[in-house]
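Case study 2.
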Amino acid sequence: MGFSDFLIKISRISSAGFLLLGILMHIACAPPKKTILSSMAKNSLETRLTDLEYTAREIKNGYINLAFKEKMFGFSWEQLVPLYRKRILQVKTEGEFYGLMRELLSRLHDGHTAFQLISKSLQKKMFDGWENLSNLPDLRWIENRPVIVRALKKWDCLGWEVVSINGISFEKIIETTVPRFCSSNDKTTRDWILERHQYLYYFPFMGKSIGYLKMAVFNPRTDDRKILTICPAGEASSEKESIKGMPFGFPEKRKNIRSDIIDCDIGYIRIPEFTLPPDTFRKKIKSILNDFQQKKVRAVILDLRYNRGGNNSFLYFLRQLVREKILINYYRYRISDRFLEKRRDVLLHQKKVRKSLDEEPESGYSHWFSWTVSPLKENILSNVPVAVLCNPGCFSSTDVFITACLEHKLALVVGNGYGGSGFGYPMRIRLPSQKYEVVYSVWEERDTQRRHKENIVRKMDVPVEQTLEDLYYGRDSQLQAAVEALLLRLKDTV
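Prediction:
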């Protein structure tokens, strides 16, 4: 007699047989719990591997600077992907997978190329309620130290250095996080991570929960130490106080353009980002420059520190600076099936408005095109010396503006660098899991000598680093250096 016949026989013995039959059949037929978990794990692994293969194929077929990056950074994409496939077999959490994929894409050192999390529910689970970062202190790298430049007044910690978070040294957190973010170099990446509080990514990347933060800090001047306890739903950023001096923090509102006239009749314009519509931007700047002209300013400082770009409104400034038509770059597109599916209209538009420079393009690429800038009829800035302030927080179209100023000597560039990876045109592709997307550049820009611009940071005309002493005394040494350089130039022209 088989087991099922035995159960039926029992069910006929009493009125409770049907109940007993159901219980025993459930026990007999249900798979072991371990089998269910194993099946779930198998499905997760298959999904992750599918996302990896999809990403690898998109980069191979569509990313424009792949051959250049392989040569510059000494790797082969074809050999790199299998190594990460093996590492994915070992990951246990979604956060670990996310970190590993970001690490793979960061090997390209391209600020417009990344592996992005798009699932809101997964983001909420992964970051444990830390989506709103307004209650965290703002940090900046100053003399290679993570220093607090803006924080809640009650903490009394401006100028203090961060030592650890939840018992993990801040140095280890940064060393773990930097290789998982795309930028032109580690120095720029480090600055961006602090600027955006992205050091918190350490926890999901390492398969840890964030929870409450215990941030250990100390005062390098007095050696006093304390612990800042920070919860996800903390107090609003409006209750923060800042170190004096714009270069160490953000402007009050990212879209606000600020102007002033400082010592020695020098005009000052602060542009936090190029995101205003070009017409709106042009009217705003024209109004400021007309005011400067009426007040007879003798020189102008353009502050672009932490400006992350946005659009081509910066061209209005370039047109103010040039005295004759100039060539600012050459560019082309990577032509793949995906590009033709999503951006064919862009290519058609370029062919319509720009003349191609080569008869037969390289296989897989568009023709080369050139980008020129002509002066305005009333180019006020071309008649006075101009200085541009920048730092590693600059990016994208701001990089294009800065490199044009450096290459054509249109203005004195003062500061400690710029992003050096803002010469792309990103395309976003959702992956099969629907949790992530891969973003990559399909537009390549080169200088007037046809040399690569990506990952190449030119030397500043006046290199200046901010110091801890500047921070403590509320002194802007970069702005000061720009004023001094302009006064010297004015003296030489008299």
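Confidence is low (pLDDT under 50) at residues 2-29.
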